[in-house]
Amino acid sequence: MHTVNQVVLFGRIGSDPEHRVTPSGKEVTRLSLATHRSVRDGDTWQQKTDWHRVVAFERLARQAVECLKKGDQVAVVGQLRPNHFTDREGQNRTVVEVTASRLCFVPNRQPPRSISYEADPPEGRRRHQAHSETGSTTGAIQTVDSDENQPNSTPS
Which residue, of 32, 113, 118, 147, has the fewest CB within 10 Å? Predict the structure, then answer.
């Protein structure tokens, strides 16, 4: 039986991306992404905010930290992966993160443009393309390959 682990989220960046380089030299950028959903409360609907942890690696990590900032709208395509760690008190913890394979966002500037960064595009896809809201080619949408595949988390 085949399974699928793919997530698509569209929301706003909650704080500026955090970029670091691991001791092994791998670049990592973490994003906090807010999405909204409607929840019924009696006869009314309330808007609730959910926060998601997003992580990008290598080229995608560099592009995210260079181009994204707090408040930007972004679509994230990726996989859910558990991140196991030991906190400062010595407790084992697990958080679920979205490991991004593609980021598409609309910067807060005129004219509105979509920009797309991809970790590993399918073979044959143009790596740099752009479209304005009118559909013309403008140099805004870019697809960026990752240097390596993202590491898999392993259960503890």
Answer: 147
